[in-house]
């Protein structure tokens, strides 16, 4: 029996102060919802992300269903009602049609905290929550303060620091200077905590189709 289960995910992407995130913002959108950065990096990153991904209503993402879009909008509204700020301020679509109801303009939130549903729940929608951290320890705490642990990313020009943070993050995979959806057939893929168990890909994936049998004897 194939014994690998992939559950939900809320992957963090932590960036240190020496990182040029101008090169990577589009990789950290969609389901990726925790990005650490510094205040002086925030404005250019947001400008590039909004212009590249959703500069016009025609570029509005279509979610899998109206229910999914409604769920995402509810998560965002809950955060806003508890003090979060919508940095993007994109106007929502006004037409009342099913295909429009399933659309959602991208939302970038700041000021998110643990009291908000979007802090813990996966959205599978076009939203990013920003958390500002000052130390590696704080970044690691934020990244690990979730029930999920499928994939994460660390952005830094200091490779030693990046590996140090990557080793401390509770996740099935951590990608340095690359997007969290990175996947290769030769590398095992799978989560920890509520993100599931077991692995596929790599020789570890073959083990999921096998079982190990022990036979002992006495003379």
Automatic annotation (TrEMBL):
Residues 54-215 form the Aldehyde dehydrogenase domain. It comes from Clonostachys rhizophaga. InterPro entries: Ald_DH/histidinol_DH (IPR016161), Ald_DH_C (IPR016163), Ald_DH_N (IPR016162), Aldehyde_DH_dom (IPR015590), Aldehyde_DH_Superfamily (IPR050740). Residues 1-31 are annotated as: Disordered. Keywords: Oxidoreductase. One of its GO terms (molecular function) is succinate-semialdehyde dehydrogenase (NAD+) activity. This is Aldehyde dehydrogenase domain-containing protein. Residues 18-31 have a biased composition (Polar residues). One of its GO terms (biological process) is gamma-aminobutyric acid catabolic process. It comes from the Eukaryota.
């Amino acid at each position: 029996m194939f014994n690998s289960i992939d559950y939900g995910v809320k992957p963090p992407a932590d960036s240190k102060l020496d990182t040029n995130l101008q090169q990577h913002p589009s990789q950290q959108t969609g389901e990726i919802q925790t990005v650490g950065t510094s205040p002086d990096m925030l404005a250019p990153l947001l400008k590039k992300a909004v212009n590249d991904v959703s500069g016009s209503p025609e570029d509005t993402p279509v979610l899998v269903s109206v229910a999914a879009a409604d769920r995402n909008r509810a998560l965002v509204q809950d955060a806003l009602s508890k003090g979060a700020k919508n940095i993007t301020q994109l106007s929502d679509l006004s037409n009342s049609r099913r295909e429009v109801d399933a659309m959602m303009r991208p939302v970038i939130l700041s000021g998110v905290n643990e009291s908000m549903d979007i802090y813990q729940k996966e959205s599978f929608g076009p939203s990013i929550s920003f958390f500002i951290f000052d130390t590696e320890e704080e970044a690691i705490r934020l990244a690990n303060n979730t029930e999920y642990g499928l994939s994460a990313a660390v952005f830094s020009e200091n490779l030693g620091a990046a590996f140090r943070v990557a080793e401390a993050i509770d996740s099935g995979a951590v990608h340095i200077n690359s997007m969290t959806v990175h996947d290769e057939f030769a590398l095992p893929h799978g989560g920890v905590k509520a993100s599931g168990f077991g692995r596929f890909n790599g020789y570890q994936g073959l083990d999921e189709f096998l079982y190990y049998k022990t036979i002992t004897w006495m003379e």
